């Protein structure tokens, strides 16, 4: 049996499902092939969403455990019911998965449950989850197969004692000692979850800084805040091997630049050293679809591979490996296939670490601007001077806005502080419209709100912040 489609999307994550829905909205006949048995991809099933559910629950626990007293709320010592916390997380995931299934029905996207393989530029063969095979004929094929955990040689993931982010979202008890390998986004988010729930957490990072790629000053301040919260950082070190036994894991750790090895023990080890594109089993080599030197599917500005009619989006291609970037790719591609214009500016994709306080960033860092020889001004405003942050007892951090002195355009913004992930949206919009710091500064912001810190930072770029 074979069906004809305008587009067959392989992968039902944020890149794939959003592309499928947008294309269907534009009148195209679309099928989306997904082998997980649930839509939403890594992000919804074993990534962004379950981690945010646990981040929120563990934040509430920490508030109750350590900070209620400050607000004049007296309670008995709170306790964690981990099974219940995990069940709530699973419910959040499940309801979102059902939401996408509903959207597929609403938009008449055909959902094909199985593993897709591209057998020609117009055919996708699906090994159906229920058994059997189906071939889908497609005018256009979209690879949206995402990414997988980058393995660390010598440290084999068993998802029990040595876990990836997937296993770290499913632990059945709070480990006494958790070692996180990698001080990137996953390491800091999940390290924070388990620290709040009672683990003693050490984060081992190869580089001599956390959050590589983010603004240096932002990363330094963030590290200070997290260290104060109780995360122990071992920077400039690498893990070269792991031995698991019943009692726990023994890690061999060395200075990154060479030196004496030491042994670090842990009950659980989380490997969070990055992700790599996942394109296995798609038949790409047989077809001759080109990959780049990092294993990503090579695409042109229209998301097209070297084979006409085969496209790719999201984590499987170049650009930041983020769910919202994948969604933007998916929408732009769907619109282009439907004959409209589409474009995604990877220079204006915000990045957020959903800890407390949150960390958010968009555009250029100070290091990048210096490297590029751009003359820029800095406007910085601390949350200690924001009335709302004071009322919330959440005054750690700052907003930093960077403006190009020549063009007077905002070229970057870096925030660590309460709700940073929401505050950054205003600056992303400003940058999309080529706004200056003065444009943000002259925009009326509600008082008392955290967003006033963004306005004040923009004013500070002109040397005229009022509350500092
Ligand atoms: P990452 O790239 O953010 O961080 C990995 C860290 O591991 C880096 O600091 C790197 O220097 C370090 N590292 C690499 N090899 C090492 C070694 N052998 N020993 C010690 N440290 C080592 O990767 P992460 O945290 O695994 O996240 C994967 C992807 O998922 C990223 O692209 C991230 O942006 C995305 N993600 C995004 C989230 C968000 O937007 N909130 C949440 C979680 C993941």
From TrEMBL:
<dbReference type="GO" id="GO:0005737">
    <property type="term" value="C:cytoplasm"/>
</dbReference>
<keyword id="KW-0560">Oxidoreductase</keyword>
<feature type="active site" description="Proton acceptor">
    <location>
        <position position="447"/>
    </location>
</feature>
<dbReference type="InterPro" id="IPR004099">
    <property type="entry name" value="Pyr_nucl-diS_OxRdtase_dimer"/>
</dbReference>
<dbReference type="GO" id="GO:0006103">
    <property type="term" value="P:2-oxoglutarate metabolic process"/>
</dbReference>
<dbReference type="InterPro" id="IPR006258">
    <property type="entry name" value="Lipoamide_DH"/>
</dbReference>
<feature type="binding site">
    <location>
        <begin position="321"/>
        <end position="324"/>
    </location>
    <ligand>
        <name>FAD</name>
    </ligand>
</feature>
<comment type="similarity">
    <text>Belongs to the class-I pyridine nucleotide-disulfide oxidoreductase family.</text>
</comment>
<keyword id="KW-0676">Redox-active center</keyword>
<keyword id="KW-0285">Flavoprotein</keyword>
<dbReference type="GO" id="GO:0050660">
    <property type="term" value="F:flavin adenine dinucleotide binding"/>
</dbReference>
<dbReference type="InterPro" id="IPR001100">
    <property type="entry name" value="Pyr_nuc-diS_OxRdtase"/>
</dbReference>
<feature type="domain" description="FAD/NAD(P)-binding">
    <location>
        <begin position="5"/>
        <end position="330"/>
    </location>
</feature>
<dbReference type="InterPro" id="IPR023753">
    <property type="entry name" value="FAD/NAD-binding_dom"/>
</dbReference>
<dbReference type="InterPro" id="IPR050151">
    <property type="entry name" value="Class-I_Pyr_Nuc-Dis_Oxidored"/>
</dbReference>
<feature type="binding site">
    <location>
        <begin position="145"/>
        <end position="147"/>
    </location>
    <ligand>
        <name>FAD</name>
    </ligand>
</feature>
<dbReference type="Pfam" id="PF02852">
    <property type="entry name" value="Pyr_redox_dim"/>
</dbReference>
<dbReference type="Pfam" id="PF07992">
    <property type="entry name" value="Pyr_redox_2"/>
</dbReference>
<feature type="domain" description="Pyridine nucleotide-disulphide oxidoreductase dimerisation">
    <location>
        <begin position="349"/>
        <end position="458"/>
    </location>
</feature>
<dbReference type="InterPro" id="IPR016156">
    <property type="entry name" value="FAD/NAD-linked_Rdtase_dimer_sf"/>
</dbReference>
<keyword id="KW-0520">NAD</keyword>
<feature type="binding site">
    <location>
        <position position="315"/>
    </location>
    <ligand>
        <name>FAD</name>
    </ligand>
</feature>
<feature type="binding site">
    <location>
        <position position="205"/>
    </location>
    <ligand>
        <name>NAD(+)</name>
    </ligand>
</feature>
<dbReference type="InterPro" id="IPR036188">
    <property type="entry name" value="FAD/NAD-bd_sf"/>
</dbReference>
<protein>
    <recommendedName>
        <fullName>Dihydrolipoyl dehydrogenase</fullName>
        <ecNumber>1.8.1.4</ecNumber>
    </recommendedName>
</protein>
<dbReference type="GO" id="GO:0004148">
    <property type="term" value="F:dihydrolipoyl dehydrogenase (NADH) activity"/>
</dbReference>
<feature type="disulfide bond" description="Redox-active">
    <location>
        <begin position="43"/>
        <end position="48"/>
    </location>
</feature>
<feature type="binding site">
    <location>
        <position position="52"/>
    </location>
    <ligand>
        <name>FAD</name>
    </ligand>
</feature>
<dbReference type="InterPro" id="IPR012999">
    <property type="entry name" value="Pyr_OxRdtase_I_AS"/>
</dbReference>
<keyword id="KW-0547">Nucleotide-binding</keyword>
<keyword id="KW-1015">Disulfide bond</keyword>
<keyword id="KW-0274">FAD</keyword>
<feature type="binding site">
    <location>
        <begin position="182"/>
        <end position="189"/>
    </location>
    <ligand>
        <name>NAD(+)</name>
    </ligand>
</feature>
<feature type="binding site">
    <location>
        <position position="274"/>
    </location>
    <ligand>
        <name>NAD(+)</name>
    </ligand>
</feature>
<feature type="binding site">
    <location>
        <position position="116"/>
    </location>
    <ligand>
        <name>FAD</name>
    </ligand>
</feature>
């Amino acid at each position: 049996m074979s069906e004809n489609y305008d587009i067959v999307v392989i992968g039902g994550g944020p890149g794939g499902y959003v592309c499928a829905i947008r294309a269907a909205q534009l009148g195209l006949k679309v099928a989306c092939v997904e082998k997980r048995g649930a839509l939403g991809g890594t992000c919804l099933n074993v990534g962004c969403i379950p981690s945010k559910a646990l981040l929120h629950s563990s934040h509430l626990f920490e508030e109750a455990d350590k900070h209620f007293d400050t607000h004049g709320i007296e309670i008995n010592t709170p306790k964690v019911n981990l099974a219940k916390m995990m069940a709530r997380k699973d419910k959040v995931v499940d309801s979102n998965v059902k939401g996408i299934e509903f959207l597929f029905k609403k938009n008449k996207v055909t959902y094909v449950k199985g593993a897709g393989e591209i057998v020609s530029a117009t055919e996708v063969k699906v090994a159906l989850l229920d058994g059997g095979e189906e071939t889908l004929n497609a005018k256009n094929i979209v690879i949206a197969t995402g990414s997988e955990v980058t393995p660390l040689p010598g440290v084999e993931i068993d998802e029990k004692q040595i876990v990836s982010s997937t296993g770290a979202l499913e632990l059945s008890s709070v480990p006494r000692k958790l070692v996180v390998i990698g001080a990137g986004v996953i390491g800091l988010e999940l390290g924070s979850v388990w620290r709040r729930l009672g683990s003693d957490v050490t984060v081992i990072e190869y580089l001599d800084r956390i959050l590589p790629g983010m603004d240096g000053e932002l990363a330094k301040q963030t590290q200070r805040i997290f260290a104060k919260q109780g995360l122990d950082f071992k920077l400039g070190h690498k893990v070269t091997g792991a031995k698991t036994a019943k009692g726990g894991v023994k890690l061999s750790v060395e200075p990154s630049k060479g030196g004496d090895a030491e042994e670090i023990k842990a009950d659980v080890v989380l490997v969070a050293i990055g992700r790599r594109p996942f394109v296995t089993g798609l038949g790409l080599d047989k077809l001759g679809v080109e990959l780049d030197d990092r294993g990503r599917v090579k695409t042109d500005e229209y998301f097209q591979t070297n084979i006409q009619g085969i496209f790719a989006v999201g984590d499987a291609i170049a650009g930041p490996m983020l769910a919202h970037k994948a969604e933007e790719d998916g929408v732009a591609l769907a619109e282009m296939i439907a004959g409209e214009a589409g474009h995604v500016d990877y220079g204006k994709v915000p990045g957020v670490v959903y800890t407390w306080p949150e960390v958010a960033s968009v555009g250029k860092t100070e290091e990048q601007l210096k490297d590029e020889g751009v003359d820029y001004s800095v406007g910085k405003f601390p949350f200690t001077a924001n009335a709302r942050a004071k009322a919330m007892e959440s005054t750690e951090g700052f907003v930093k806005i960077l403006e190009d002195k020549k063009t007077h355009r905002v070229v970057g913004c870096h925030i660590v502080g309460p709700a940073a992930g929401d505050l950054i949206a205003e600056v992303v919009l400003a940058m999309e419209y080529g706004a200056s710091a003065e444009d943000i500064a002259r925009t009326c912001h509600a008082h008392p709100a955290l967003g006033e810190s963004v306005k004040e930072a923009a004013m500070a770029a002109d040397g005229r912040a009022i509350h500092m």
